[in-house]
Amino acid sequence: MIWLVTFLSCIGLLCAEEPFDHNVHNERVIGGHDAKPNTWKWQVSLQHGSSDEESFYHICGGSVIDSLYIMTAAHCILSMDAKQYRVVVGEYNLFEYDGSEQFIRVEKIVVHPGWNGDLANGNDIALLKLANPIYDNGYVAIAELPYREQMLPHGFNCTITGWGLMDYEGSIPTILQEAPLDVVEHSVCSQYDWWGSVALKTMVCAGGDGIISGCQGDSGGPLSCYTDRAWRVHGVVSYGPAGMCNQYKKPTVFTRVSSFLDWMYSVMDGPEEDDSGK
After folding, report:
1. Which of 146, 200, 252, 276 has its CA 20 to 30 A from that of 223?
2. For position 198, which CATH number holds?
3. Alpha carbon distance 76, 269 (integer Å)
4. Which of the following is catalytic: 48, 75, 112, 186?
């Protein structure tokens, strides 16, 4: 569920499974390909439904950042009722049981207190506390994170992963997709013919070549970059352009993880808060 914006106006789609009309030049995560099994072990499928175990469906991605916590986008939270969500870790084929999955219910939702529903305002990040801890079955790993306020240089190559839409017909992939995206530094991404004032320093822009991009269903998922001798999650998929997902000079925009580490650690290590995180 990637929310789509045209400059300062949000034209978000509320349901990840609802297709929308856009044209693309390549397929999968728009321009991506099947990921190798057991590669992106911190990737999560966030699913929405009810108490009926059979009715859950994928709405967003996420990243494992602790045995009890998942990081995702705030705009992925359709309801503050934690009972309506579960996460699937160790997932690969979204529509088949691979034997590697762990299905875990969500106990608590903590949305960043600065999130007000306006993507241009940033703070599009949320943490989900799980009802039961994730265990190491060989198919799951806790994501490495960047250091505080780390910013990647222009052109730095990263990878987006997810089960987002692949084409203009709204096709959903069965296999986890991956695609390379180059970072677009803030001084470029904030230019008027790119994202302008919508691009904040607390965001990471990546892509914008008109070929490869994230798309609806990828929201909340990771932008993984190899820095400091490890793959680290530097971004959380936040938004992209209205219409075509892969527009020239309209890169996929991510919440910059390095800008929110203090808040994340305060949630995970601090005293219990109410579900709003405020």
Report:
1. 276
2. 2.40.10.10
3. 23
4. 75
